[in-house]
Amino acid sequence: MTVAVFPGSFDPITLGHVDIVVRARSVFDRVIVAVAHNSSKTPLLDLDTRVRIAADATAHLEGVEVMATQGLLVEFCEEQRASVIVKGLRGGSDYDIERPMALMNRSITGVETLFITGDNGLSHIASSLVRDVARHGGSIKQYVPHGVEPVVLDALAHH
Ligand code: PNS
After folding, report:
1. Could you tell me which of 77, 85, 90, 150 has the fewest CB atoms within 10 Å of its CB?
2. Could you read off the pLDDT of 96-151 as tens digits, one per residue?
3. Ligand 1 pocket check: which of 20, 73, 80, 105 to mutate, most ligand atoms within 8 Å of Cβ?
4. Which domains does the chain have, with CATH numbers?
5. Nearest 5°: phi and psi at 6?
6. Is the pTM of this model over 0.90?
């Protein structure tokens, strides 16, 4: 059984992320969505909330689980017996960011990173843009799974 880890901040999970999960699941037997801490970001949503909305958004997908992870991603992959990290690429600038991470992760434990091209119609969606649109009063319904918008609005109201 091939297990893949799809890591990210998921702050919040978007339809672009769900698209990558579905595509990854078509290749791997089990996909673990790993909601991670990115030390260069202060998230809008706390870890439990990010895990909960990602779990809700992928509950209909068999063979997909959502877990929180702290610490080194490669150690999490070893604990979960995952031999592959999956990342989605929207364009070249994503690759520029992802390439050094893929090389670093491989040099630590040998874990490979596979890149999946997402749906072109979703390539403008980024969690950072979604937060920004919501922060300025725009609707984010078309970019996020059902039920995520109220969670983001609530977090913004209490921020
Ligand atoms: O959605 P993001 O914020 O672009 O995801 C980045 C993330 C969380 C995957 C990355 O920061 C990460 O892997 N963090 C875990 C700590 C770690 O292993 N750091 C070394 C990465 S080479």
Report:
1. 150
2. 999 999 999 999 999 999 999 999 999 999 999 999 999 999 999 999 999 999 99
3. 73
4. 3-157 (3.40.50.620)
5. -110, 100
6. yes
Active-site residue 139, yes or no? no
**Is any atom of ligand 1 closer than 6 Å to the C-beta of 105?**
yes
* Pairing of β 112-117 and β 84-89: parallel
How far apart (Å, rounded) are the C-alpha atoms in residues 81 and 3? 7
Q: Is the CB of 38 under 6 A from ligand 1?
A: yes
Spot the catalytic one: 23, 25, 87, 90: 90
| Protein residue with least CA distance to atom 13, ligand 1 | 73
How many other CB atoms are found less than 10 A from the CB of residue 150? Answer: 8
* Residue in this structure with the two tokens 């990010």, named with its chain if needed: 50
